[in-house]
From TrEMBL:
InterPro entries: ADH_Fe/GldA, ADH_Fe_C, Alcohol_dehydrogenase_Fe. Residues 184-289 form the Fe-containing alcohol dehydrogenase-like C-terminal domain. Residues 4-171 form the Alcohol dehydrogenase iron-type/glycerol dehydrogenase GldA domain. GO terms for molecular function: alcohol dehydrogenase (NAD+) activity; metal ion binding. It holds the Pfam family ADH_Fe_C. The keyword Lipoprotein does not apply. This is Iron-containing alcohol dehydrogenase. Keywords: Oxidoreductase. It comes from Winogradskyella ouciana.
Length: 353
C-alpha cells in the first residue's frame, strides 16, 4: 500500500514541504516527470521549486509508456548525475504515474525493464517516489503495478516495491481535463469496479473498496446535483478505491481485450476499455446497461469499426495478447475459463468493435 497520502484542494502547495526532508544532498536531485500538457502552465509549474540539480522532464502522453522509454529515462539520469536521485515525482495521468514508478524501480534494479514485466520479479526497493495525479480514474496512483508495453507484451511490473511512497491527491489539479478524456479515464474506474465485484477473486477487502468506488461512480456519472468541485473530489476518491479494490483481486474481460487493442493498434487504455466494455453484455449485463446510460447522458460517441479492416493475422496478435493474461480470465470466468473462452469467441468479439 501507499505509505503516505495527503488529500485536499490546494494540497499540491505542500509539495516542497513534503520533499525537503527526503533530499539526500546536492548531487542527489529530485526528478519531476510532468505531463507535457502542463508545459508553460504557470499555475502548476510555479509550484515546483527546483534546487541544486533538480530537473523537470516533460513527458509526451500521446502514446502509452514503453519499456525502451523507461530504460532511456534511467540512462539519462545515470549519465547526468554522480549520485542516485533523492526522489522521482510523477505529475500527470496514468501514463506519468507509471513512468515515475517504473523509473524509480529501474534505478535500483539492474538490466532492462522488459525483464521485470510480470509478478514479483523486482529484487531491490525503488528510489523514493511520489505520485501526483492530475486526472482521475486509473487507480495508478495507488496500485502495485506500472503498465508498460515491451517488445513482447503489454504487462505491468507488479511488485511490493512499485507503490508510491507518497501520494498527493489534489482534485483541483484535474480542473482542465477535457470532457471526453474525463469520461474515458473515469470509466476505467467504473470498469475496475465492475470487473472486481463480478470476479471470482472477490473477497471482503476488494468488495468494500469496490462497492464504495462503484457508488461514487454512479453519483458522478448518473447523478444530477453534483457541483463540479464535488464531482472532481469524488472521482479522485473513486479512482483510489477502485485501484484498492483491484489491488486485492483482479480486472477482467474488458481489460484483457483492451490490452490487445492497445498492443496492436495503440488504442489508449481508457478509451480502449470503453470500446470493449460496450460489447460485453454477455459477461457484465448490469454494468454494461449502466455504462450505456452514462455514455448517453454525457453525449459520448465511441469510435466504431476499429477492427473492421484487420486481417486474420492481426486479429490473432490481439487474441494472443488477450489470452496470455490468464489471471484476468480466471478472475472473470473461473478456473475452467479455457472451456468458455476460445479463440473463435474472441475473434467474434473483436470483430464487433
Ligand atoms: P493519460 O495519462 O493517457 O492522459 C490522458 C490525457 O489527459 C493526456 O493527453 C494528458 O495530457 C491529459 N491530461 C492529464 N491531466 C490533465 C489535466 N489536468 N488537464 C488537461 N489534460 C490532462 O490518461 P490516463 O487514462 O490517466 O492513463 C492511462 C494510462 O494509465 C495507460 O498507460 C494505462 O496503461 C495506465 N494505467 C495504469 C494502471 C496502473 O495500475 N498502473 C491502471 C490503469 C491504467
Ligand atoms: Zn484499467
Amino acid at each position: 500500500m501507499v505509505s503516505r497520502v495527503v488529500f485536499g484542494r490546494g494540497s499540491f502547495n505542500q509539495l516542497d514541504e513534503i520533499l525537503a526532508p527526503m533530499r539526500k544532498g546536492r548531487n542527489a536531485p529530485f526528478i519531476f516527470y510532468v505531463d507535457d500538457v502542463f508545459k508553460g502552465n504557470h499555475w502548476l509549474t510555479s509550484r515546483i521549486t527546483l534546487s541544486y540539480k533538480d530537473k523537470i522532464v516533460y513527458v509526451p502522453t500521446k502514446e502509452e509508456p514503453k519499456t525502451s522509454q523507461i530504460d532511456q529515462y534511467v540512462e539519462d539520469i545515470i549519465l547526468a548525475h554522480s549520485e542516485l536521485p533523492s526522489g522521482i515525482i510523477g505529475i500527470g495521468g496514468g501514463i506519468v504515474m507509471d513512468i515515475a514508478k517504473a523509473v524509480s524501480l529501474m534505478l535500483t534494479n539492474k538490466g532492462e525493464s522488459k525483464d521485470y514485466q510480470g509478478w514479483d520479479l523486482i529484487k531491490n526497493p525503488a528510489i523514493y517516489h511520489v505520485g501526483i495525479p492530475t486526472i482521475s480514474g486509473t487507480g495508478a496512483e495507488v496500485s502495485r503495478t506500472t503498465i508498460l508495453t515491451g517488445p513482447e507484451r503489454k504487462l505491468g511490473i507488479n511488485s511490493d516495491y512499485t507503490p508510491f511512497d507518497q501520494v498527493i491527491l489534489d482534485p483541483e489539479l484535474t480542473k482542465d481535463v477535457p470532457k471526453d478524456q474525463w469520461f474515458y479515464t473515469g470509466m476505467d474506474c467504473f470498469v475496475h469496479c465492475v470487473e472486481s465485484l463480478n470476479g471470482t477473486y472477490l473477497n471482503a477487502f476488494s468488495q468494500s473498496y469496490g462497492e464504495k468506488a462503484f457508488e461514487l461512480c454512479q453519483d458522478i456519472f448518473l447523478g444530477d446535483n453534483l457541483s463540479e468541485k464535488d464531482s472532481q473530489d469524488k472521482l479522485m476518491m473513486a479512482s483510489w478505491h477502485g485501484g484498492m479494490s483491484i489491488a486485492y483481486s483482479q480486472v477482467g474481460v474488458a481489460h484483457a481485450l483492451s490490452y490487445g487493442l492497445g498492443y496492436l493498434l495503440g488504442v489508449k487504455h481508457g478509451i480502449g476499455n470503453c470500446i470493449v466494455f460496450d460489447h460485453l453484455e454477455e459477461f457484465y449485463p448490469e454494468g454494461v446497461v449502466m455504462f450505456k446510460k452514462m455514455k448517453a447522458k454525457h453525449n459520448i460517441e465511441l469510435p466504431q469499426g476499429i477492427c473492421a479492416d484487420l486481417d486474420e493475422q492481426q486479429l490473432n496478435v490481439m487474441i494472443d495478447v488477450a489470452l496470455s493474461l490468464e489471471p484476468l480470465w480466471e478472475n472473470a470466468i473461473g478456473k475452467n475459463w479455457k472451456n468458455k473462452i476460445t479463440r473463435e469467441k474472441l475473434m467474434t468479439l473483436y470483430k464487433l468493435m
